[in-house]
Amino acid sequence: MDLDATDYRLLELLQDDASLSNQALAERAHTSPATALRRVRRLVDGGVIERRVALLSPERLGAGLTALVEITLDRQGAEHLDAFEARVAGDAAVQQCYRVSPGPDFVLVVHAADMAGYHALVQRLFTQDANVRNVKAFFSVKRAKFDPRLPLPAPAR
Fold first, then answer.
1. Tens-of-pLDDT digits for all 157 residues of the chain?
2. Which of 97, 102, 125, 139 has the most crowded CB, counting CB atoms within 10 A?
3. In three state form, how does the secondary structure of the chain look?
């Protein structure tokens, strides 16, 4: 899909605040509401915009423990990788799941209320699966930055 300066302006604005009304979005993008609506629909239909979400505060909602977890499997065949990925992706405590190379097979970002909640997650996802060889967790003591925005080309002026 070819994107132009208007598309990039709309994407930049939506990354800042996806709750903008179409009217407000059009005003800020310096385009008509009809054009903004049409363009955003095209970006959604083309898969450029995957979804629009609200970003919540884990601490204020009782998910104060964040862990980055490296997982190494015993068997790395495609069916084993797919099965593990499906298992962890289906768990609400797993916020992000990446297959990585080299090193471990997966890196996960998980949220739990506390260490007991993390232990329950370990039991649920890693201990009962005989194919998990190694689990290495890193616990966040401070989140210095969290920004899900993607860098975009500067809009032409």
1. 999 999 999 999 999 999 999 999 999 999 999 999 999 999 999 999 999 999 888 878 877 899 999 999 999 999 999 999 999 999 999 999 999 999 999 999 999 999 999 999 999 999 877 799 999 999 999 989 999 999 998 755 5
2. 125
3. CCCCHHHHHHHHHHHHCCCCCHHHHHHHHCCCHHHHHHHHHHHHHCCCCCCCCCCCCCHHHCCCEEEEEEEEECCCCHHHHHHHHHHHHCCCCEEEEEECCCCCCEEEEEEECCHHHHHHHHHHHHHCCCCEEEEEEEECCCCCCCCCCCCCCCCCC
Residue type, 91: D
Residue showing tokens 């015993």 = 74
